[in-house]
Amino acid sequence: MDTLGYLGQGFGVALTPYNLITALSGTLIGTVVGLLPGLGPINGVALLIPIAFALGLPPESALILLAAVYLGCEYGGRISSILLNIPGEASTVMTALDGYPMARQGMAGVALSLSAWSSFIGALIATCGMVMFAPLLAKWAIAFGPAEYFVLMVFAIVCLGGMAGDRPLKTFVAALIGLFLSSIGIDANSGVYRFTGDNIHLADGIQFVVLVLGLFSISEILLLLEKTHRGQEAVKATGRMMFNVKEASSVFFVNIRCGLMGFIMGVLPGAGATLASAVTYMAEKRIAGASGKFGQGDMRGLAAPETAIGAAACGALVPMLTLGVPGSGTTAVMIGALSLYNITPGPLLFQQQPDIVWGLIASLFVANIMLVILNIPMIRIFTRILAVPNWALVPVIAIITGIGVYAVHATTFDLFLMVGIGIFGYILRKLDFPLSPILLGFILGGLMEQNLRRALSISNGGLEILWSSPITLGMWVGTAFMLVFPLIRIWRKRSRQRRALADV
Amino acid sequence: MVIQRIFAVVLLLVCIGLAMMAWPYQAPFSYEPVGPRAFPLLMLALMGISLLYMAIRPTPIVHSEEEPALDRPTLIKIGICTVLLLVFAGLFEPLGFVLSSILVGIPMARLYGGRWLPSVVIITLMSIALYVLFDKVMDVPLPLGLLDVLEN
């Protein structure tokens, strides 16, 4: 049971006053960032990478800061979806379904604290799962050679497409764009300059922060131009702020069920919080049957997606920490942050830098508790922030984004590149392409190419190494299943539509 | 649908162009069987196939309910906003952070529906506050540009 010892050590790291303050400021910044339109967890975390680096934070504190910001952003997104009925991002759509009606019934404070509580339980379950499975997985992952890693990444990319629902092809293209972008710059193995067009600023490749902020912040700024009208008034959060024991116990089993489900979906690459929240909401609605008032302010309908999101967000850290393969946009950003500190996540991280891994896991607990507590005194201030008009907000977001990009390399070339990427991202968004696969592809691309080349060097060019071991074979079967799965689903949907047409 | 086809074809042409660019990439001397061009070419090929399919059979775009259709005024606004961002990038170093963000921030605030006086006041204050916050407090170096004189 040395895992528990490590976890204790992690709490030792997370509970030092310095890291506690880091986590507190992270949750505060994150909540504000998550509240604002145009900024979500992905660009919130990305903006803070260069700043954390400039502040000279040690790696474990930087990671704690980013994790706290991430959780805070999720919480901030919750506030706007419960009080305004405007989900900040895809995963909180389900939260608004029952959270907003609850707020309309004068239970805004209860809805907010209950959602924070649910998310805390979800994170707790996922963290327990992580404590149990991550070391096992890390031990197992040491048996992975380059060929296995390459196939694992192929599986991760295909999973993204298979889980993406109605647009597998677009997801796939987006991931390929990211994979291709990662090959820009000087090739580490041969020293060949690839796709740089003799531009010295591209020799190092596209900077990750530039890509993230361009794709997410700049495209969002352009998107906000279309929505000139201000959204509806926020529901006032008055009355009781905390849920009571009866309310908490009424959703307790929902929390447990959805936490387990969310954790499993978070671990799978590509599924993530959005899918987890949708699936658990539907499942709980079915379980509740006629007794539920889902969609009219049922507490279970609020607790289910929130627990799942909390659990999936922590679950997504498992493949990132053990395999070095991110499962979601935000974990991709965190890997980008780690690489700034020259830390490569992977099976060896658990042995070489247990402080970082377990400190991070422990700080997730701490940050979640902070969010539940912060809810009581701060919620009125947070709702005030929702009233800031766009005209004051957007230029400031643009300026801060510029600072974040400039802080990486201090060149204006990066600023121009960011605007270019932003326009491209805006076009992609208008055409209904998902953007986070580009990030995942960008992070995975370099690893994928290196591992492919290493594997083929071992076999001296023979391709059979890619399917000779049982692990690779198993993953190819999984990949094939994931490729066929969306096709079957689309085919069934089409035939149903055809039948419906024939009936009319 | 048409826009999607055009986009797919344009991106396909870009892919072909990049593939042609990648073709001569070869290591002068090499220890490994896979050279520097294999991986990008593989990605471009897969992307090309997917885009070809998309150009032939585009998928319908699902619009969220409250999203308004793109009309001419919005497009003009988006154009102006892009130009402003480019101007910001261009002036960032020569004018310095504070001046360039005031110069770009005020028209941007106007673009999003702010009135003159509040826009000027808030953007000016925010530019100075952000400069102090990042450059002085958080040690992120920002260019002073023309305001260099004030430093000493």
Order of helix and strand elements from N to C terminus of chain B: HHHHHH
Instruction: Pick out the low-confidence regions of chain B.
Output: none
- Tell me which oligomeric state these chains represent: heterodimer
Query: Kindly state the mean pLDDT of chain B as a whole number?
Result: 83
What is the terminal separation of chain A in angstroms? 64 Å
Helical amount of chain B: 55-70%
Main beta sheet strand tally, sense and closure of chain A: 2 strands, antiparallel
Secondary structure tally, helices of chain A = 20
What is the helical fraction of chain A, as a range of percent?
over 70%
**Strand-residue fraction of chain B?**
under 5%
Query: What structural class do you assign from the helix and strand content of chain A?
Result: mainly alpha
Domain DUF112 (chain A): 20-440
Keywords (chain A): Membrane, Transmembrane, Transmembrane helix
Transmembrane segments (chain A): 20-39, 46-71, 109-134, 140-160, 172-193, 205-225, 260-283, 303-325, 332-350, 356-374, 381-400, 406-428, 435-453, 473-491
Protein name (chain A): Putative tricarboxylic transport membrane protein
What does this structure look like?
Chain A contains 20 helices and 2 strands. Chain A is an all-alpha fold and 504 residues long. Chain A has one domain (2-503). A two-stranded antiparallel sheet of chain A has the order 1-2. With 152 residues, chain B is mostly helical. Chain B folds into 2 domains: 2-56; 72-151, no CATH class. Helices cover 69% and strands 0% of the residues of chain B. Chain B has 6 helices and no strands. Chain B has helices at residues 2-22, 38-56, 72-95, 97-111, 116-137, 148-151. Chains A and B meet through helix 3, helix 7, helix 8, helix 17 and helix 18 of A and helix 1, helix 2, helix 3, helix 4 and helix 5 of B. Chain A: This is Putative tricarboxylic transport membrane protein. Chain A: Pfam families: TctA. Chain A: Keywords: Membrane, Transmembrane, Transmembrane helix. Chain A: It comes from Pseudomonas graminis.
